[in-house]
Design a protein that fits this description.
The chain is of the alpha+beta class and 146 residues long. Helices cover 19% and strands 31% of the residues. The chain has a 4-stranded mixed sheet with strand order 2-1-6-5, covered by helices on one side. A two-stranded antiparallel sheet has the order 3-4. Strands 7-8 form a two-stranded antiparallel ribbon.
């Protein structure tokens, strides 16, 4: 069996390949999921990591609105459906092994459920963890009081 991603390593620049063939070769985990890293398209800021299954990825590519798979809810999760803080896809790419997605997005407001722009706000420095950013919006405002 030919490894599609090994073939793609030697593919000509700007060559085109059928999406279904590439996704058939993509390496989703045993649960049918793949990590997806969301990055702000114009600044390079890493916003969050979530999981996508093939259905979420196809919906994202089809609609341009980022959709993930919620492991806790066991269903598709359209970013912003509760909070209104949507992600609009600008570009999507698989890594060289076909097991991680990078999504270039246009994020509306905070990406994190904590109300912060990025989920990566706990800076690990020496023997301490420092909170490196403040919430832009109180989470109770985003999601209602628990």
């Amino acid at each position: 069996m030919i490894d599609t991603f090994k073939t793609l390593e030697r593919a000509d620049f700007d060559s085109r390949h059928p999406l279904t063939q590439v996704l058939d070769a993509a390496r989703f985990n045993a649960d049918g999921l793949m990590p997806a890293i969301a990055q702000q398209h114009d600044t390079g800021e890493v916003l969050m990591m979530a999981w996508m299954n093939r259905e979420a990825l196809m919906e994202t590519l089809r609609t341009g609105r980022v959709c993930y798979w919620s492991r806790s809810r066991g269903k598709l999760w359209r970013k912003g459906e509760s909070s209104g803080q949507q992600q609009h896809l600008r570009a999507a790419a698989l890594d060289c092994d076909g097991d991680t997605l990078l999504l270039q997005v246009d994020q509306t407001g905070p990406a994190c459920h904590s109300g912060r722009r990025s989920c990566f706000y706990v800076a690990l420095e020496g023997n301490e963890a420092r909170i490196a950013s403040a919430p832009l919006i109180d989470p109770d405002t985003l999601y209602g009081k628990a």
